[in-house]
Amino acid sequence: MSFKNLDTLYRQVIMDHYKNPRNKGVLEEGCLTVNMNNPTCGDRIQLTMKIEDKKVMDAKFEGEGCSISMSSASMMTQAIKGKTVEEALKLSAIFSDMMQGKEYHEDEIDFGDIEALQGVAKFPARIKCATLAWKAMEKGVKEEH
Q1: What pLDDT, on the 0 to 100 scale, is given for residue 114?
Q2: How far apart are CA 63 and CA 74, in angstroms?
Q3: Interatomic CA distance for residues 71 and 15, integer angstroms
Q4: Average pLDDT of the chain to the nearest whole number
């Protein structure tokens, strides 16, 4: 597949998550809630997670922002559900490396739709948009445990 076709496909995946977000909403009381914002551009997110026995049982988000931040939140909530807290944090660290343009081993992890965000690394001003939901997740699970 040519680079142009791949770039188009990635844009379509991002827009699909933006227009049809997965896990949009708020979990019931008693769940972990984290509010974060990016004052530079105005993106904001409220992430709620249900964590039991050091495992992310469910995750939902509410928020406002650009297509990158909201798509990333949608993809992140899909990726961490069912994972242990340790696995979710590892995924976040690898995602952070990807956003900084660092190499990561594709055989080490299956990012699925998240790979569509790798082009964001070329636009430093947008990296904070892509990582906002991930930083909220990190903050929440670190405070919880």
Answers
A1: 93
A2: 11
A3: 7
A4: 91
